[in-house]
Design brief:
Ycf3; 306 residues; signal; TPR repeat; TPR repeat-containing protein YrrB; Serine Threonine Protein Phosphatase 5, Tetratricopeptide repeat; 0% strand
C-alpha cells in the first residue's frame, strides 16, 4: 500500500472521483474495517482485539462500504461522526480514518492530520493511526513529528516492519543514507517478505552505486511479486548499470509480457539494443517510449543511466 515511487509517504493520486477499496491509493495503510494493525502485522498483535467489523452499521453507508466517491465518503463519514445516536466508538474511529484516507487523496494533508488527531484522541493505542499520521507529517516535512509517531508505532507494535521502512525513508530525505539502510534492514528482519523494504533498500543501493546489493534486493522483489512488471523493470535498470545487457533485456521483455506498452520497459529495451550495436532499432524503441511518457528520459537519467 506504500507508493514510494510517486510519493514516499502517500502515493495518492489527485483524481476526485475514485472508488475506495478499488483504485484509490490512500494515506492510511489499513482497510476501512480494520484500524488496529500497521501495514504488515496481524491485527491481534496491535492492541488486544481483532479487526473491527462493520456488521452493526448500515452497509449502504459510503463511509464504511468502500463503494463511495471521495466526496461521498467525506460527507457520509462527517454525518456519522456528528450523529447524536446510532454510532459507536469503534466506527467513529473508522470514520475519522476514512476521512483521512479521502482528504489525503485530494491533497488536504493538514485535514488528514486533523482527522487522525481526533481518532487518536479517542483511542491512543492504535499503531496504524500513528503510522498514518507519521506519513502525513512526512508529506509536510515535519520530520521530527513523524519520527516521534514512528517511535510510538514501534512501541505499540514491535513486530511490524512498516515503521522501520518509513523511518528509513525519512532518513533518506535527511541525507542519512547509512541510517536509512540500517532501518530498511531492521524492518526486513521483522518481516522478510515485506516488499517495500526491499524496494526502498534496493533503490537506495542503486543511488549509492552498490549495484550488486541493489540487484540482490530487486531479485527478492521479483521472487515475492513475480506477476508485477515493475519488479522486473527495477532489476532491469540495475542490470543496465552493471552492463549485464542480456539479463536486462530478459527482464524488460518479461515486464512487457505482463504489461503491454510499459514505457520504462520499452525504453530499457531501446537502451540495450543501442548498447549492443543496434542503434536504429534502439532509437525506434526510445522514440516510442517518449511518446508513451513524455519526460521519461529525465526519469531514466535520475536512475544513473546515461
Amino acid at each position: 500500500m506504500f507508493a514510494y515511487r510517486r510519493n514516499p509517504f502517500t502515493g495518492a493520486p489527485s483524481a476526485r472521483r475514485l472508488m475506495l477499496g478499488a483504485s484509490l491509493t490512500l494515506l492510511l495503510a489499513a482497510p476501512a474495517t480494520a484500524l488496529h494493525a500497521a501495514d504488515d502485522a496481524k491485527p491481534e498483535s496491535a492492541g488486544g482485539t481483532d479487526a473491527m467489523q462493520t456488521k452493526n452499521v448500515d452497509q449502504t453507508n459510503p463511509c464504511f462500504n468502500g463503494e463511495g466517491s471521495i466526496e461521498e465518503v467525506l460527507r457520509a463519514c462527517k454525518v456519522y461522526i456528528e450523529a447524536d445516536e446510532g454510532t459507536d466508538e469503534e466506527h467513529v474511529i473508522i470514520a475519522h480514518g476514512n476521512r483521512a484516507y479521502a482528504l489525503s487523496a485530494i491533497g488536504d494533508v493538514d485535514g488528514a492530520i486533523k482527522e487522525l488527531d481526533d481518532a487518536i484522541a479517542i483511542d491512543d493505542q492504535r499503531a496504524v493511526l500513528y503510522l498514518s499520521r507519521a506519513r502525513a507529517y512526512g508529506v509536510k516535512k515535519r520530520y521530527d513529528d513523524a519520527l516521534a509517531d514512528l517511535e510510538k508505532t514501534m512501541e505499540l507494535q514491535p513486530d511490524s516492519a512498516a515503521p522501520h521502512i518509513l523511518r528509513g525513508k525519512i532518513y533518506e530525505l535527511q541525507d542519512k543514507q547509512d541510517d536509512a539502510l540500517d532501518e530498511y534492514t531492521a524492518g526486513l528482519d521483522k518481516n522478510e517478505k515485506y516488499v517495500p523494504g526491499y524496494k526502498n533498500r534496493g533503490t537506495l543501493h542503486r543511488s549509492m552505486k552498490n549495484f550488486d546489493k541493489a540487484e540482490a534486493d530487486f531479485t527478492k522483489v521479483v521472487e515475492l511479486e513475480p506477476a508485477n512488471a515493475e519488479s522486473y523493470i527495477d532489476r532491469g535498470w540495475v542490470y543496465v548499470l552493471e552492463d549485464k545487457l542480456d539479463e536486462a533485456k530478459d527482464d524488460f521483455e518479461k515486464a512487457l509480457s505482463i504489461q503491454d506498452n510499459n514505457a520504462f520497459a520499452i525504453a530499457g529495451i531501446g537502451v540495450v539494443k543501442s548498447r549492443q550495436g543496434k542503434p536504429t532499432d534502439g532509437s525506434a524503441d526510445l522514440s516510442m517510449a517518449r511518446k508513451l511518457e513524455p519526460g521519461i528520459f529525465d526519469k531514466i537519467r535520475e536512475l544513473g543511466v546515461q
